[in-house]
Amino acid sequence: MTAIYLIGLREGLEITLVVSILVAFLVKTDRRPLLKWVWGGVAVAAVLSIGFAALLQFGVARLSFLHQELFEAIASLVAVTFVTWMIFWMRRMARQMGQELRGRLEDAILIGPWAIVGVAFLAVIREGLETSILFYAAAQGATDSVRPLIGISLGLLTAIVLGWLLYISALRINLTRFFTWTGALLVLVAAGIFKYGVHDFQEAGVLPGLNNTAFDISASWPPEAWYAELLRGMVNFTPAPTVLETIAWLAYGIPVLVIFLWPQRPALTQAPALSK
C-alpha cells in the first residue's frame, strides 16, 4: 500500500501540475471560455486510464496460470522501463515543462477547440497510462485487492489537494527536491517490481533457479509485523528470495539509484558575442 500510495502521489502530482499549467495559462490570458475544452480532454484521458487499469486487472484474471505469469512478468518489465524513463525525464525537463505546454496550447488555440482537447488529452493520458501500468505491476505482490485501491486513491487525492494548494499559492513546495526524493524512492519500488518480474519468469519456466534461494530467514521473519509489510510493499522484500531475484534487485536498484542521485552538471551557457 505504501509503494502504491507513492506511485499515486508522484504520478498524480505530475498530472495535477500539467493541468494547472494549462488552466493558469488560459485564466491569465483571459480565455476562460476555453477551459471547458481543456477539462474535456482531461476527462477523456482519465476515463481511458481507468478503463485501461480495469482491463489489466480483470482481463488478465481470465488467462491460464502460465499466461498470467508471463503477462505479469512482461508488465513488470514495462513498468520498470516507464519508471526509469519518467524519473530521469522529469529531472531533466521539469523547468521547461511549463513553457513547452503553454506553447503547445497557444498553437492549439489557433487551430480550434478540438486541438485544445487534444493537447490536454495527450498531456494527461501519458501519465494516466503510466499510473495504470505501475499500479498493476506494484499490486501483484499485495495480499488482498482492497489495500492497493486504497493506496492509489489516497495518493491521487493527496496529489490533487497539493496541486490545488500550489495553484492558489496557499502552499509552496520545492518541487525539484520533491521529485528528487520521490524519484529515489520510486527507484527502490521499481527494483522490487523488477525482482517480482524475474520471479514470474521463473514461475513460468522461462528462467531457471526457482528453487535456488539466495538466503532464507523465514523462520525468524514475522510476516505480519509492520516493518515486514513496509519492506514487502516498498521494495518487494521476501524472506527467501531466489538467487536471480536478488541479483536482479541489486543489478537495477544500486546503479540506477546512484546515477539518479549523482549531481547534475550545470548547463553551459554560451558567452555573448563581442560587438565590433
UniProtKB/TrEMBL annotation:
This protein's record includes keyword Disulfide bond: no
InterPro entries: FTR1/Fip1/EfeU
Swiss-Prot/TrEMBL keywords: Membrane, Transmembrane, Transmembrane helix
Top-level taxon of origin: Bacteria
Family: Belongs to the oxidase-dependent Fe transporter (OFeT) (TC 9.A.10.1) family.
Entries under PANTHER family matching the protein: IRON TRANSPORTER FTH1, PLASMA MEMBRANE IRON PERMEASE
Full protein name: FTR1 family protein
